[in-house]
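Retro notes (design track)

What went well: tokenization of the new backbones is finally stable.
What didn't: we kept losing track of which sequence belonged to which structure.
Fix going forward: every design gets posted as structure first, then sequence, in one message. First example under the new rule, 469 residues:
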């Protein structure tokens, strides 16, 4: 599958508590479409109706999977959860798609998970030694297994005991009994928000999922918080306190939709702020500011506003290219970039351009884009990046290459500039990025830039045996 050279997020989750809601499946579907940017390989939903669990999951995009016929079979419900997934290691199988539905002595659990556990392999080995049988290769099944094993303690205590065992990043939506449960990891790495929908409630990875189904934003779920939603309302409790808050900075840089609000900051505004800071710290004399669409647009607008240099369109994104594009050989990679992006030659010919991108991972696509612009007649191309150099792998639910494949880890900025063929190259600093997000630096995870992880991480070169979710 061809994609621009970007990091990939793992998943998006949604949960709805709305008793006797005949449009439950449609609402979940709309919410998942709004979260589709967080995962494009598989999607699924599980719905509890009259104490019976029904679910459907498949490989593909949300709108491909949930046809009218499928939604009709799922219609009506009291509680529902949904999931979109991007897998990383190993092959993708429908068995690994979510929500994960498991039966146990106390009934059934449906679970959707965004994030990654850093101790999943250890826990799985321990559980298998004790007789547990696993049906998937995802770490989410470890969580479901732990909850099921602790069910005799009662729902709340079972989840608390399970959360005490796991380490890593997670935002969970769970159906257990007649309860919708939301859980966010103690560091707050992965996002989770709560909204009000009529007499019910919605949990989701981003506020855009609330907007599309007509829910009103209530608040972010706090780090280390568990909410249990049922006929009695919302019960909030904390299973962990005192750990370092570490919201993922890459949510603000790239992953989240620009129309989302996350932990008190609007994503579009943070990206525009980053562009402004780039213009202040790394000015250059040029004729026009352009963006790598779509993720670089907000920062490019900010750069143009601060610098006084006009913003214009230099690259057109093909929004209708199929998500699977088989590259027959290495020589076709440049053509693949051209299929995704095309140069608006008449607008850039003879001009000195400032090209804004949100990040550089391997640097391969950046080089091809710069070449395309110069081949189309650009006089100069000055590359500005609205995130610092990516130098370290992520272990918390983002698919990053090994460190030796991260160009920011193995080359200097001057070497990267020469490699991509730009006339100049500059990145925003970590301090500048923190300033743009407007959340104190001690509450953000900048590990992919700084190597300062909020918890101990695996030492293995192959980061995980499990597929991440």
């Amino acid at each position: 599958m061809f994609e621009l050279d970007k990091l990939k997020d793992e998943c998006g989750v949604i949960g709805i508590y709305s008793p006797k809601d005949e449009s439950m499946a449609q609402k979940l579907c709309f919410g998942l479409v709004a979260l589709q940017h967080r995962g494009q390989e598989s999607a699924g939903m599980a719905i509890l109706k009259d104490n019976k669990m029904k679910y459907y999951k498949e490989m593909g995009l949300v709108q491909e999977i949930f046809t009218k016929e499928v939604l009709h079979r799922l219609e009506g419900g009291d509680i529902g959860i949904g999931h979109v997934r991007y897998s990383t290691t190993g092959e993708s199988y429908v068995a690994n798609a979510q929500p994960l539905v498991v039966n146990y002595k106390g009934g059934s659990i449906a679970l959707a998970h965004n994030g990654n556990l850093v101790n999943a392999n250890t826990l799985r080995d321990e559980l298998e030694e004790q007789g547990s049988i696993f049906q998937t290769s995802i770490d989410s099944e470890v969580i479901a297994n732990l909850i099921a094993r602790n069910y005799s303690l009662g729902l709340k205590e079972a989840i608390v005991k399970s959360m005490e065992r796991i380490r890593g990043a997670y935002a969970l939506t769970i159906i257990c009994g007649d309860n919708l449960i939301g859980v966010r990891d103690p560091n707050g790495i992965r996002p989770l928000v709560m909204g009000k929908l009529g007499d019910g409630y919605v949990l989701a990875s981003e506020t855009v999922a609330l907007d599309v189904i007509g829910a009103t934003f209530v608040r972010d779920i706090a780090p280390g918080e568990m909410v249990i939603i049922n006929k009695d309302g919302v019960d909030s409790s904390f299973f962990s306190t005192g750990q370092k808050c570490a919201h993922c900075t890459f949510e603000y840089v790239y992953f989240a939709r620009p129309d989302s609000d996350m932990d008190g900051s609007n994503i579009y505004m943070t990206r525009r702020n980053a562009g402004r800071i780039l213009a202040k710290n790394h000015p250059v004399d040029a004729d026009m500011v352009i963006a790598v669409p779509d993720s670089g647009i907000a920062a490019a607008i900010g750069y143009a506003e601060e610098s006084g240099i006009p913003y214009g369109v230099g690259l057109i994104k093909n929004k209708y290219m199929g998500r699977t594009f088989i590259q027959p050989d290495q020589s076709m990679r440049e053509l693949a970039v051209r299929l995704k992006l095309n140069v608006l030659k008449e607008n850039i010919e003879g001009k000195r351009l400032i090209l804004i991108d949100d990040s550089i991972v391997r640097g391969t696509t950046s080089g091809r884009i710069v070449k395309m612009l110069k081949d189309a007649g650009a006089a100069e191309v000055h590359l500005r990046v609205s995130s610092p150099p990516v130098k370290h792998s992520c272990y918390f639910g983002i698919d990053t290459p090994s460190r030796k494949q991260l160009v920011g880890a193995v080359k200097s900025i001057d070497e990267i500039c020469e490699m991509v063929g730009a006339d100049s190259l500059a990145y925003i600093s970590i301090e500048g990025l923190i300033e743009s997000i407007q959340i104190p630096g001690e509450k953000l995870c900048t590990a992919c830039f700084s190597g300062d992880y909020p918890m101990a991480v695996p030492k293995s070169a192959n980061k995980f045996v499990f597929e991440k979710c």
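Added context from the reviewer: Residues 267-281 form the longest helix (15 residues).
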